[in-house]
Amino acid sequence: MIDNTTNWYIRFNRKRLKGEYGTEDTFHALNSLFEVLFILVRALAPFTPFLADNIYLRLLPYIPKGLLPEDARSVHFLSFPEARTELYDEEIERRVSRMQKVIELNRVARDRKAIGLKVNIEDTTISRG
Fold first, then answer.
1. Could you tell me which of 4, 45, 120, 121 has the fewest CB atoms within 10 Å of its CB?
2. Residue 12: how many CA atoms within 13 Å on its side-chain side?
3. What count of other Cβ atoms lies within 10 Å of the Cβ of residue 97?
4. 67-92: pLDDT as tens digits
């Protein structure tokens, strides 16, 4: 989940998160990221208690009071997150998975030919064979 969040969501939504498509779009992108982080710290709490609590305490001022228990001093007082199956869309997941595979194959091909990620592919000669 951490890899998907950093390497896919944040990278592909960098402009949205910075506000380049308007405040409403930025609000939605940041809310999605916030919800992922809030779920992540609750899921990681048993495995990385200090790190999860540190992140949680930084998120705490932005968490709606209705989502918190009576004692919200620590992430360890929160319940483990439950899956929200109504948010799943198999078609979107299939398409995103296919896109990720294509990008990964491209990275592997560039790596094998020692072509950096920042190099324009038209500026290089790739032998076919």
1. 120
2. 11
3. 10
4. 888 899 999 998 888 888 998 899 99
